[in-house]
Amino acid sequence: MTDFSQAHRPRKALGQNFLHDPGVLAKIVAAIAPQPDDHMVEIGPGLGALTRPLLERLKHLDVVEFDRDLVARLRTGFPPDRLTVHEGDALKFDFASLGDNLRVVGNLPYNISSPLLFHLTEYAERIRDMHFMLQKEVVDRMAAQPDTPDYGRLSVMLQARFRVAKLFTVPPGAFRPPPKVDSAVVRLAPLPPEAIPYRDAKAFAEVVARAFGQRRKTLRNTLKGLIGAEQLQAIGIDPGRRGETLSVAEFAKISQLLR
Ligand code: SAM
């Protein structure tokens, strides 16, 4: 098991806030409900707070950790035949190299959470589900519905590929050192292919990025040069609307015009 006798000084730049509340850990593990043969990968295992209870239930676990000191601790603290430690940046990690039917979990470094979620979206076909601890504000944005202040590019891009469910919030005191913000645990389950609303992922991403690039402007302005007002009207979408009022399905419908 991990040796805690030598203190690790948390690195702020790597978003190191280590979970220590046993009640919260038990709640996360219950939400994940690991089964012995699950193919699970943990991002940012740190000192192993979540790694340990997961390994008690799994035959094998892959982890991706950036901090070299923590990698060394994990390699000596857990049986190497049951824990495979990949040293590196999760933002660049090739999750396809692990195979498929992946269950991805992690108490993520908050400073890289959005780019990491976009990176993982590229592997959606290989993923069975994902459970993450994130800044509560980010989880609220991920799960937001149209016409609310939290609704934006992150909500639309994730909800087009995943069912997003906010599970529970976690107070700063559950971590050492405590972060300045509340956290929340979220579950993402990939939608079946027939439920993905768009045909062309690139066109969809472009329309969504444009529509939220200038939040206060209407579609007539944000999509100028890409899609004409009359084209929007022809598919029943008022060009005077703003991106934040459109459903994921309506974004998909607009992106079809680019094909
Ligand atoms: N899972 C542990 C826990 O719950 O106590 C640690 C969580 S801490 C919030 C985030 C972890 O992610 C740290 O161990 C940090 O070193 C690691 N990390 C930071 N940036 C990373 C990156 N780009 N790729 C992989 N791991 C990273």
From TrEMBL:
Keywords: Cytoplasm, Methyltransferase, RNA-binding, rRNA processing, S-adenosyl-L-methionine, Transferase
InterPro entries in UniProt: KsgA/Erm, rRNA_Ade_diMease-like_C, rRNA_Ade_Mease_Trfase_CS, rRNA_Ade_methylase_Trfase_N, rRNA_adenine_dimethylase, SAM-dependent_MTases_sf
Domain of life: Bacteria
Coiled-coil boundaries: none
Catalytic activity: adenosine(1518)/adenosine(1519) in 16S rRNA + 4 S-adenosyl-L-methionine = N(6)-dimethyladenosine(1518)/N(6)-dimethyladenosine(1519) in 16S rRNA + 4 S-adenosyl-L-homocysteine + 4 H(+)
Record: residues binding S-adenosyl-L-methionine: 17, 19, 44, 65, 89, 107
SMART domains, A to Z: rADc
Keyword Methyltransferase: yes
Gene Ontology MF annotations: 16S rRNA (adenine(1518)-N(6)/adenine(1519)-N(6))-dimethyltransferase activity; RNA binding
E.C. number(s) listed in UniProt: 2.1.1.182
Keyword S-adenosyl-L-methionine attributed: yes
One term under GO cellular component: cytosol
Main location: cytoplasm
UniProt-listed PROSITE patterns: RRNA_A_DIMETH (PS01131), SAM_RNA_A_N6_MT (PS51689)
One Pfam short name: RrnaAD
Record-annotated Ribosomal RNA adenine methylase transferase N-terminal domain positions: 24-192
Compartment list: Cytoplasm
Family classification: Belongs to the class I-like SAM-binding methyltransferase superfamily. rRNA adenine N(6)-methyltransferase family. RsmA subfamily.
Known function: Specifically dimethylates two adjacent adenosines (A1518 and A1519) in the loop of a conserved hairpin near the 3'-end of 16S rRNA in the 30S particle. May play a critical role in biogenesis of 30S subunits.
UniProt cross-references to HAMAP family, sorted A to Z: 16SrRNA_methyltr_A
Protein's UniProt name: Ribosomal RNA small subunit methyltransferase A
